[in-house]
Structure formats: C-alpha cells, structure tokens
Amino acid sequence: MSIQSASLAQFRGPAAGFFEGFTNVGEPELEGSVTYSEPGQSYHIKGSGENIWFGKDSFAFLWKQMEGDFIIQAELRFLGAGTDPHRKAGLMIRSGLDEGAAHVSCVVHGDGLTSLQYRREAGQDMEELKFETEGPQVLQLEKKGSSFTVSVAKEGDLYTRQSLELSLDGSLETGLFVCSHNKDVMEEAVFSNVRVFGTVPDDFRAYGDYIGSLLEVLDVESGARQIVGGDPGSWQAPNWTPDGKTLIYNSDGLLYNFDLATGRSEVLDTDFANRNNNDHVISFDGTQMAISHHPEEDDGQSVIYTVPLTGGSPKRVTPLSPSYLHGWSEDDRYLVYCASRNGQYDVYKIPVEGGEEVQLTDEASLDDGPEYSPDGKYIYFNSARTGTMQIWRMDPDGKNQTQLTFDEYNDWFAHVSPDGKWLVFISYPPEIPAGSHPFYKRVYLRLMSVDDLEPRVIAYLYGGQGSMNVPSWSPDSKKIAFVSNGIFE
C-alpha cells in the first residue's frame, strides 16, 4: 500500500510558521510580543506605539517576506475596551522595517473606523480611503502588480472593497500589526484564520498547472478554520467518512484516505480506476463509494463506478459517458449525476446496479451538482437556467423544480447536512461565467437553512474547482471539510 505524505509540518506550518520575524517598528518604549496557539492556529499580538501616520510609524509587526502577487487574510478581534479609540490593528504590506517605509494597510480602529491607509514614498505623510463598514472582523489585503485591494466584511456578510495603484516592488514585509496610539499603553488583538499565499499568474494554464492545497476543517458555528494537512500540488474535494475519523480526497487521479488523528494519507485502492476526478460520494449506509473515472475505452470521458469503501475492484454503473457523479439516494438504491446527452448537460438518476438512466431535468443551460436530502424528499442541484448559476430543489422524480437562491453570485454544489437542516455551497463572483466553476478564484462558502433560505458567508477563500465538489459535512453536522489554494512558501 503506497503512502502519500500529508506534508503536515509544512502545511500546518503556514499557520504555525508562516511568519519570519516580529519587529517593534520605530522602537516604541513598550516592546510588543506575539504568541501563537494551537489548536485554534491563532496569533495573540501585544503592541504599543504612538501612531502609524505622518512620516513615521511606531507599532508591533509580525511579518513574512513576499514577492510577486499575493494575498493576506485574517479575522481580527481586539481584546479589552482599550484606552484610545484610535488604537488600530490589521494587515500590512511594507517596503521595509524602518519607521518611514512606504506601505499599504488594512486598518481597523478601536472605535470601528476602517480604512485602506497608504504611504506612497518613504517619509511622506499617510493617506487613506475610508470604508462605510465599521468594525469588520474579516480582513483581506491583496497585491496584484501595482494594484492593492482591501476587502472587509462583518462575519457572515459579503466583502466590500477599496483599491488603489501604488508602486511597491521586490521583497515586501507582509503581516499583522497592532498599534496602541499611545506610547504608554499596550493594546492586544487576536488574529485567527490567517493565510498568506501567492496567487496564480496571468499565464496560468487551467488543468495544466496546479498550485498548493490546504486541507481544512471548519467549525460551522464558530467559523474557526483549522489546517489539518496539505500539499504543494493539487488535493481536491474531501469527503468525511461516517465514523468521523477520515477524509477522502483525490489527487493526480487517485483517491486517498487522510487520517485526521495522524495527518497521514494512504491510497484508497480503486484497482484499474486511476484517472478519477473529484466526484466521489459515500453511500448513506457507509459501505460503498461511487466514483467518476475516465477510462480510455470511453475516449477518456467520465464514467461512474461503485467500489467498496475499503477499496477494491470498481463496478461500472453508467453505460454512457460523460457522466459526472454527485449523489446517492438515502435508501442507497440510486445514483444522481450530471451528464451530457444530445448536446446538453442535465441531471439524471440510475439504479446503483446499473440499467436504464432517467432524465430529471431538460434545460438548454447547465444543470449540475445533484444531491439527495437525507430524508429522500428532495434532490438539490444548481442550474444556470435563469442566467446566473443558482441553487434549486426538485422532487426525486424531477417534478416541482424550485429556485432557492436569487442573487448575482454563481452558486455551485449545494451539500445537505446529515441532519437535513442546512445547505452549504460555493459562490463565485458575478464576473465568472455562470456555467463555469474554475480553479483559483476569490470565492465564498455560504450556508443557509433549508427553512429560511437566507445565505450567509462562513468562509472567505481562494479556491473554487476542487474546494468542495462533494458532500463534505462531518457526521454530526457541526463541521465541513474543504480545500483552499495558494502558492505557499
């Protein structure tokens, strides 16, 4: 049995060891400090300093050197009531550690004032662009060439953004900061869900080039994300096994069992099926897995098979291809999938043993991602029939097709919690074509109750294709697993 390294030290390391240095910029009289804690993978920073303004700065800074195009993300929480309403904390990209260095910052003040602040040249006074959003918890700062974009949100909300053009080149100190705005006072803030990563270049080749993958587990109620493993290449689409101990993901055409206790991955034996895509689903009774493999005899197009969850020789189910698996019925009698027939992609179902497939939707636009509810009453799916990709629901026989989401975002792959109460899905921004779910985009994971159908954001990430294509809930309906991406150094 072959073993694939989880690279746990390296990819849990981006949380524990992302940053290279801690500096009290401007030599404040009270020296700050930083503490990193597990298992929450958060940073507790104490900082003093008179200000980050005018021609020089004084503050505490946890940093890493970055080059090229990249993003830094974090969630911020001040500790205590604070002494000065202008105490500040946030994200910074800085061209040096001297007190007058040019820089761009995402700044949240103690009184809630939030702004994109910047110094164009060393020693110059600062400038700023203010946000209407006050006191956001979720922060992101992105560099792309000479363009810098700050994105902020209250937990659960969509981002609001401010951008500017500024020439900062070469190796840049990038990280988290705290400034008390009072040289005699020490202020504290906690940064969680911290990520620093490079983004793909403009000449990136989709399905030809791949970048790093982080395997993450998110607590739905608290929003806390934990990196459990990862790889410099492409890991995709984790399932949670019924015993709650293992995540199954795909990489380079193979499936792997990732042991959550040890952080190690072992190949799941699928015999001849060694060109598997990221459509793999576990049966409700937990004994089988259905997979989508690309056999040469079908011109490399996707075909659905079943295989024991412990591994073995796959049994072909769909006679026709391409067929992309997405769900089992609650009684384990049927599989539902997206298939191209007669020039269009629709939703179909077929007996697990094989046989005649049944077409459930018939739209010229794309219908995809079908998944049964645990009680068997509905099939959830996504459809672009209204012009944007939205979440829909229908009866198991295809009747009563009903739209559930209605905003400008393109929503894909609604996964139903095991208790049947929640849907989690991935949302692409409006500029991404409705019929496309590409890799390496700035996307949201959103959650909504099956009763009130009001979506809210639970994760802000760089990802997309492969992040959450398959059912990824923990058995107790409290957590989800997904993959985020980036060039991690």
What is the secondary structure topology, with strand pairs?
Elements: E1 3-4, H1 8-16, E2 21-25, E3 33-37, E4 42-47, E5 52-53, E6 56-57, E7 59-66, E8 70-79, E9 88-94, E10 103-109, E11 114-119, E12 127-130, E13 138-144, E14 147-153, E15 160-165, E16 172-179, E17 187-198, E18 212-219, E19 225-231, E20 236-240, E21 246-251, E22 254-259, E23 264-268, E24 276-282, E25 288-293, E26 303-308, E27 315-316, E28 323-328, E29 334-341, E30 344-351, E31 358-359, E32 367-372, E33 379-383, E34 390-394, E35 402-403, E36 410-416, E37 422-428, E38 441-449, E39 456-463, E40 479-486
Antiparallel strand pairs: 1-23, 2-7, 3-4, 4-17, 5-6, 7-16, 8-13, 8-17, 9-10, 9-16, 10-11, 11-12, 13-14, 14-15, 18-19, 18-40, 20-21, 21-22, 22-23, 24-25, 25-26, 26-27, 28-29, 29-30, 30-31, 32-33, 33-34, 34-35, 36-37, 37-38, 38-39
CATH level-4 homologous superfamily of the largest domain: TolB, C-terminal domain
Q: Are there runs of 5+ residues with pLDDT below 50, and where?
A: 1-16
CATH architecture of the largest domain: 6 Propeller
Q: What is CATH's topology name of the largest domain? A: Neuraminidase
Give the strand order, joined by hyphens, for the main sheet. 2-7-16-9-10-11-12
Name the overall outline. elongated
CATH class of the largest domain: Mainly Beta
Major sheet: 7 strands, antiparallel
Number of domains: 2
- Helical proportion, percent range: under 10%
Distance between the termini: 30 Å
Radius of gyration over C-alpha positions, nearest whole angstrom: 24 Å
* Overall average residue pLDDT: 94
Number of helices: 1
Report the β-strand fraction as a percent range: over 45%
